[in-house]
Write a structure and sequence with these properties.
Elements lengths: L7 H16 L8 H30 L3 E5 L3 E4 L2 H8 L2 H10 L4 H5 L5 E3 L3 H15 L4 E6 L7 E5 L2 E5 L12 E2 L5 E5 L2 E7 L2 E7 L2 E12 L8 E10 L5 H5 L3 H12 L16 H24 L7 H4 E6 L6 H12 L4 H11 E4 L10 E3 H7 L1 H21 L4 H7 L2 E2 L2 E3 H8 L3 E3 L2 H11 L1 H6 L4 E3 L6 H7 L2 H11 L20 H26 L8 E6 L8 H17 L8 E6 L7 H18 L8 E6 L4 H7 L5 E4 L11 H7 L3 E5 L4 H8 L5 E3 L3 H10 L4 H7 L1 H9 L14 H9 L5 H19 L2 H13 L6 H13 L8
Parallel strand pairs: 1-4, 1-13, 4-12, 13-14, 14-18, 18-19, 20-21, 20-23, 21-22, 23-24, 24-25
Antiparallel strand pairs: 2-3, 5-6, 7-11, 8-11, 9-10, 11-12, 15-17, 16-17
Helix pairs in contact: 1-2, 1-4, 6-33, 9-11, 11-12, 11-14, 13-14, 21-32, 22-23, 22-29, 28-29
The protein binds ligand 26W.
Catalytic activity: [(1->4)-alpha-D-glucosyl](n) + phosphate = [(1->4)-alpha-D-glucosyl](n-1) + alpha-D-glucose 1-phosphate
GO molecular function, one term: glycogen phosphorylase activity
Cofactor: pyridoxal 5'-phosphate
Length: about 800
């Protein structure tokens, strides 16, 4: 649906009418939330009509479709994004002006759809945006968690987790289809029997849960195609047991119902540590089984032969979490559709593609044989068979090489290795940046790469440049369009035309003024929420992302302590004032990450209240990082910190969002930072620290001695000692002792080793910032070269190189 033909008058009239019919209110006596709903319902009705035509068009054209299976979709708010895509934001704003109401106030009623932890979930959301915009029929499939990622509160400098009941007041954007459920089976026993030649299987005594689809329309920018995000909710199959009810055993009756419905209650907040929880496995199979069943059903309705399935359908596995889709498709093709193993396996391998998002060993999913066997007996048998057949193949290839066969086995040491299952069952395996793809080939999946070199790829991540520039930084977007035209909105590479304005004083000034305005807005937010006053003429130096040791927020804070020491020693020190901004959540069970959050607060407390440094540096932790906050913080940032230990950050996508808004990146040679630097040039981005090869070498040699660095660097020694000498928390001087010891004895993320280089890189930033004509030129260069990092480009690569997908004809 391209631009919607609706006038300001019509918008006003529709809101008034909806308020009357939905709530029995007039605009004057309606609550904000009612006004939000009236507006959102107006918009959603426009969308829903075209949604039906869209589906029809795809069906008629017999277009191949992709289903993106993901445990996470970090969508953020829908209203603003939909208004942008329909190009009616201005009109709606006007309508609210005329109604004498604050539109921002109304928008802020909408809770974020925070159905994800971090990068992986947000990437899925950006992909949906790009597919719809590019006219590619691609749909998301996930779980309708009743509770999204926890809300973070800070109490006494510590993270406290609160529930996120985002659906409490309903969700205007979803359409529930309770009359189209799928049934998902757990547990029970199997009974194999023969029907003629064919081996069949019966399930006895299993538990059955209903999966209800909740469909959300996904709009693209000026696009005729509306795709679907299908989120599955779990519902008990049984109606309340009235027998128990009558006997007064209400609680038992309810408990049984609850047990089934708990599956889609909440998102696991662990984004790195794989925990092997029973309920998480249930979640995985639940949504994967429902998705595959409904995909097959829809496919069969087209009347095509099942052997052509892969020609019409591609299924993407976002990390290993949905990898049970592979044995599930095998199960249905064989047990229900009567195909033999060879046929089913061939189709699977041509249908599935798998993306890996991390090489951290602790994040590699494995499940105990016992658990899978008891919860999913038939699925286990299929995985077992996949493993048997693969082991025989390997035996042919590497006779006698037991070590290798064991290393590559899907089932070993009584555990099922999901990444291996995903690789074997897919026709494509990819990493999310050049370096990451190389590491997968050379290290993580080396054995598999040797057997199936042709399936391994690197596809560098991207971001929705529409959400993160056109929407999040409207004024900048307008100024860009004024200079280079509007094509960049759908052809992000056209941002390159801005290069001609890099030295243009007027455009530099514009960028500077818009940044200042954004900083002012953020400063107001900080004042309101943190009661900290920050100087908008200081450098806003930002690190926002999940808290993890490999991301090295700790190095950032150690450097702040060092800078503070320097200012105390030399108050006339000529540094430019800087505001260090942090935001991000730690997994509730990740003690060390939470302690680092506490450390940031302790340092902030100390630094912000020291009058002697005259506000030269400030430290701010903004609580409850989410998509909406990202849209606020990123356009207000001068410096983007992307400082992970080289080799650890698969790609990063936050880095790209900052670049797109013209921030200057200070980062390591890691993930997509490397490609960002190639795009923008060495002089426009500050790279520091050890390279991945160097780290690999040091690790192999076992030669790293962090204590020596501590001895040799007095400034660093001072900072380290301050962790334990009561400088920070006089009441509890031992609180950070474990950090001190870990750094001194192990320093697994090479913080001490990179510390000095990091300090120098920060000094460089300081110098650069003090030369405005150079600084803003670099800012413009960054925007100009950010086009490559649009998810439109990423999706183009997937559709051409992996899914074999073509845009549908819009007419
Ligand atoms: C509990 C199991 C688990 C393990 C890993 C849950 C979630 C994960 C994710 C893979 C973590 C994640 O979000 N990875 C990030 O994916 C982004 C998108 O590709 C990359 O840009 C980030 O570098 C990567 O850390």
């Amino acid at each position: 649906m391209a631009m919607v033909e609706i006038s300001v008058e019509e918008i006003k009239a529709s809101i008034e009418l909806k308020l009357q019919t939905l709530f029995g209110r007039t605009f004057q006596n309606a609550s904000k939330s009612q006004i939000y709903k009236a507006l959102a319902t107006t918009v959603s009705e426009y969308i829903t009509k075209d949604w039906a035509y869209s589906k029809e068009r795809v069906r008629k054209q017999n277009a191949k479709q992709v289903y993106y299976l993901s445990m996470e979709f970090l969508m953020g708010r829908f209203l603003e994004n939909n208004l942008m895509n329909l190009e009616i934001r201005e009109k709606v704003k006007k309508a609210f002006e005329e109604l004498d109401a604050d539109f921002d106030d109304i928008q802020s009623v909408e809770p974020d759809a925070g159905l994800g932890n971090g990068g992986l979930g947000r990437l899925a959301a950006c992909f949906l945006d790009s597919m719809a915009t590019m006219g590619l029929p691609g749909h998301g499939n996930g779980i309708r968690y009743e509770y999204g990622l926890f809300q973070q509160k800070i109490k006494d400098g510590q993270q406290v987790e609160m529930a996120d009941p985002w659906l409490e007041y309903g969700n205007v954007w979803e359409v529930s289809k309770s009359d189209e459920p799928q049934l998902v089976h757990f547990g029970g026993e199997l009974e194999y029997y023969h029907e003629g030649e064919q081996l069949k299987v019966r399930y006895l005594n299993c538990q059955c849960v209903k999966a209800i689809p909740y469909d959300v329309p996904i709009l693209g920018y000026q696009s005729n195609l509306i795709n679907t995000l299908r989120l599955w909710g779990a519902r008990s199959l049984k109606p309340l047991d009235m027998g128990l009810f009558r006997k007064g055993q209400y609680v038992d009756a309810l408990a049984e119902k609850e047990l089934a419905e708990v599956i889609s209650k909440m998102l696991y907040p662990e984004d790195i540590h794989e925990e092997g929880k029973h309920l998480r496995l249930k979640q995985q199979y639940f949504f994967v089984s429902a998705s595959i069943q409904s995909i097959i059903k829809k496919y069969k309705n087209t009347g095509h032969h099942l052997m052509d399935f892969h020609k019409n359908v591609a299924i993407h596995i976002n990390d290993t979490h949905p990898a049970l889709a592979i044995p599930e498709l095998m199960r249905i093709l064989m047990d229900e559709e009567g195909l033999n193993w060879k046929q089913a396996w061939l189709i699977s391998r041509k249908t599935f593609a798998y993306t890996n998002h991390t090489i951290l060993p602790e994040a590699m999913e494995t499940w105990s044989v016992e658990l899978i066997q008891s919860l999913l007996p038939r699925i286990y048998d299929i995985i077992h068979e996949i493993n048997e057949r693969f082991s025989r193949e390997l035996w042919e290839l590497y006779p006698g090489d037991w070590d290798r066969i064991e290393r590559m086995a899907v089932i070993s040491h009584q555990r099922v290795h999901m990444a291996k299952l995903a690789i074997l069952g897919s026709g494509s395996v990819n990493g999310v940046a050049e370096l990451h793809g190389e590491i997968l080939k050379k290290e993580t999946f080396k054995d598999f790469y040797e057997v199936y070199p042709e399936i391994f790829k690197s596809i560098t991540n991207g971001i929705s440049h529409r959400r993160f520039l056109l929407l999040a930084n409207e004024d900048l977007a307008r100024e860009i369009t004024e200079r280079i035209g509007k094509s960049w909105v759908t052809q992000a590479e056209d941002l390159e035309k801005l290069e001609a304005y890099a030295k243009d004083e007027k455009f530099q000034k514009v960028l500077k003024e818009i940044r200042r305005e954004k900083k002012k807005e953020l400063a107001d937010y900080i004042l309101l929420h943190n009661e900290i006053e920050v100087d908008i003429d200081s450098i806003f130096d930002t690190q926002v992302k999940r808290f993890h040791e490999y991301k090295r927020q700790l190095m950032n804070v150690l450097h702040i302590m060092h800078l503070y020491n320097q200012i105390l020693e030399n108050p006339e020190n000529g540094i430019h004032p800087r505001t260090f901004i942090f935001s991000g959540k730690a997994a509730p069970g990740y003690h060390r990450a939470k302690l680092i959050i506490k450390l940031i607060h302790s340092v902030a407390e100390r630094v912000n209240n020291d009058k002697t440094i005259k506000g030269k540096i400030k430290v701010v932790f903004i609580e409850n990082y989410n998509v909406t906050l990202a849209q606020k913080i990123i356009p207000a940032s001068d410096v983007s910190k992307q400082i992970s230990t080289a080799g650890k950050e698969a790609s990063g996508t936050g880095n790209m969002k900052f670049m797109l808004n013209g921030a200057f990146t200070l980062g390591t040679f890691d993930g997509a930072n490397i490609e960002m630097q190639q795009a923008v040039g060495k002089e426009n981005m500050e790279i520091f620290g050890l390279r991945e090869e160097e780290i690999s070498k040091i690790r192999q040699e076992g030669s790293y001695r962090p204590d020596q660095i501590y001895e040799e660097n007095p400034a660093l020694r001072k900072v380290m000692d301050q962790l334990i000498d009561g400088t920070l928390e006089p009441e509890d001087p031992d609180i950070f002792r474990e950090i001190y010891h870990d750094l001194l004895e192990r320093d697994p993320y090479f913080i001490l080793k990179d510390f000095e280089a990091y300090c120098r890189a920060n000094e460089k930033i300081d110098e650069l910032y003090q030369k405005p004509e150079i600084w803003w030129e670099k800012g413009i260069q960054n925007i100009a070269k950010a086009g490559y990092f649009s998810s439109d480009r990423t999706i183009k690569e997937y559709s051409e190189g992996v899914w074999d997908l073509k845009p549908v004809d819009p007419t």
